[in-house]
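Input:
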Amino acid sequence: MGLRELKKERTRLSILDAALDLFLEQGYESTTVEQIAGAVEISPRTFFRYFTSKDHLVLWFHDHGEGIMLETLRSVPSDEPPFTALMHAVRAVLSDMQGSTPADAQRFLKLRRLLEEHPHLVGLSVARGADTERRMAELIAARRGTDPDQDQLCHLIVAFAMSTMRVGFECPRRDGTVTEIIDRMRETIALAERSLRPGWDL
Amino acid sequence: MGLRELKKERTRLSILDAALDLFLEQGYESTTVEQIAGAVEISPRTFFRYFTSKDHLVLWFHDHGEGIMLETLRSVPSDEPPFTALMHAVRAVLSDMQGSTPADAQRFLKLRRLLEEHPHLVGLSVARGADTERRMAELIAARRGTDPDQDQLCHLIVAFAMSTMRVGFECPRRDGTVTEIIDRMRETIALAERSLRPGWDL
DNA sequence: TGCAATCTGTCATCCACTGACATAAATTAC
DNA sequence: GTAATTTATGTCAGTGGATGACAGATTGCA
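Output:
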């Protein structure tokens, strides 16, 4: 990786950190892009070259997780039932979190606090989730050898899987460590698996 | 109802209709609020007194449906299992659609076409859905006599129910009549009920 | 008819976001 | 090491969504 890419990644994280801190300090709405840019000494125009929008700052984790999930989905043996495969994908995200640097863990926890204090921001995440679901439904349909337009079940499978994930990540009132969150997520997965009729997703 | 409220409702619908037509004609992004306001001969400022934002135009159906669902949820006997109660609420929305005026049906179909052509607008709807889910989870928790912060299952129940609804309304490639959509939705409900383990939501 | 409440338009302003262009920096080729 | 190329950054000007303040018009009611 060249010096250029390295520096780019560093400013990218600087922007993210500065923004998270500002948001938590003075609120999301009342923080302007100009302020964020000022904090990392770049022009507002440059900010938009790193993040397509102010909202995008909040979506970095979602994007990261989506990448891992899609990747996992493609690599998981195709004789596994779809929902099981999706739960594998979710667990892959958890593994990634477990192996993340302390700095990344900090960012994740800050993001969670932010979402807790500004519930309407959760909407941004689930909005992008709609996109993610469409992509996943295609993969699942391919797995099932069906046409996503005809096959309602593939959409339902994906929707249930993402619901499970979302519920698992939902903010418990007192925020814990990353490990606690991962444990909670595992419980939720178990709960979902218990709730579904065996073989429903075949 | 006074003359004032009547007139207000009429302009409200005029704005909505003009907007839907413009969106379908020339796209969502490339239609400005100024154009919409111009089409119904009001000032842009007044537009924002009828709809809190441009996006809000797309959410009128969601808001309407949410109202019906919450209302139904409160009136349904509390010895019914939560998921069953939620499916009743969904069916109440379908009944309302069945009894709607032709004009309303037209609006609904136009909205669907719009969402089909601009998938990213679906995000707006599911974003608001996150809000809706939180409110519903409280009702379900109350029903179950639990604290929504502790009880993961109540969130899962609501999330699964809303997923079912969303999948049911998802655009099939060729758009049909309102009746066809309602039938499709009923199938989806049946599919979801078949997928869940009996008694999972108790 | 006249008073009070409410609706509307105008104006000024903020902020997110984008295209165009010039400059500065890093990468590559020689 | 320097020149040429590619890419990142800043400046500037502009668009469009959204909000507060105020004045004038409209409606509802006594």
